[in-house]
């Protein structure tokens, strides 16, 4: 796992000192920042995404400036940022450079966002699985070895993610159109959500520069709602999403030679019971039974990560 760790310009400040610790959870849709002082939350704000894999560097910088204007800079001991798409030291350094002007003298660590998730689950070893706008798994064993699976982005992977579900809803609707079938409940909901009156119009909309990864990930809720209402094709899509996320977890568990815990988090992972059931069942079939659903947002894993640094 790559990360950027920028030393402070001044003398280091102990994480247990009164100086603040700031945690950032930088997703494909939003950036959440939490300011901790003496271990207590004193500010918690969200702005648009500042992940340079999803928005321009200029837009990312604007969102970070807005966020720090809300949660404050000042005397900050450490900023710990988790973000998707942090695959190289260069990725981490680029994001750290955008954060640095807002927290002069602070130590800045940038890691893949799945590392926040594992810590938020109260584990220092195990596998964290992100099921949100995108998907990925990351883990660490007791020997300090790290491994990951997925996280390739929506063009190459992201199976089981919000984007995947939104795209599959479009594909489902187009298949029915090609077969001469009338729109079903999922297609009807999708057309209404997209503001079009014919499945054929979804093709141009999907490829339009006015829509993108976040737009279609936002349509995942239509699949989840249709599944809850008994729509069989939507139920199968949600079940498949759970199995796909479990496959990422299983790859990572096997690389590390561990049997858990596996912690499932992010928007879909934390909020869709049917997906959770499919995820658990797929892992149980492979002998992995220590499976947990995250109960707090990943950004709250920051304090554990700072403590682990000593």
What does this structure look like?
This protein has about 300 residues and is α/β, with parallel strands linked by helices. The chain contains 12 helices and 11 strands. The strands form 2 sheets. Strands 1-6-5-2-3-4 form a 6-stranded mixed sheet, sandwiched between helices. Strands 9-8-7-10-11 form a 5-stranded mixed sheet, sandwiched between helices. A hairpin with a 5-residue loop joins strand 8 and strand 9 (about 145-150). The two termini are about 20 Å apart. The model is unreliable at about 5-15 (pLDDT under 50).
Strand order of the largest sheet: 1-6-5-2-3-4
Low-pLDDT residue spans: 7-17
Largest sheet: 6 strands, mixed
Determine the fraction of residues in helical runs and give it as a percent range: 40-55%
The SS-based structural class is alpha/beta
Morphology: globular
How many helical elements?
Answer: 12
**Helix/strand order:** EEEEHEHEHEEEHHHHHHEHHEH
Structure in a nutshell:
The protein has 310 residues and is an alpha/beta fold. It contains twelve helices and eleven strands.
Keywords:
alpha/beta, five-stranded mixed β-sheet, 21% strand, 11 strands, 310 residues
List the helices and strands and how they pair.
Blueprint (H helix, E strand, L loop, with lengths): L3 E3 L13 E7 L3 E8 L2 E9 L8 H15 L4 E8 L5 H11 L7 E6 H8 L5 E6 L3 E6 L5 E5 L11 H17 L6 H10 L6 H7 L5 H5 L2 H9 L3 H25 L5 E4 H6 L1 H12 L6 E3 L8 H8 L1
Parallel strand pairs: 2-5, 5-6, 7-10, 10-11
Antiparallel strand pairs: 1-6, 2-3, 3-4, 7-8, 8-9
Helix pairs in contact: 4-8, 4-9, 8-9, 9-11
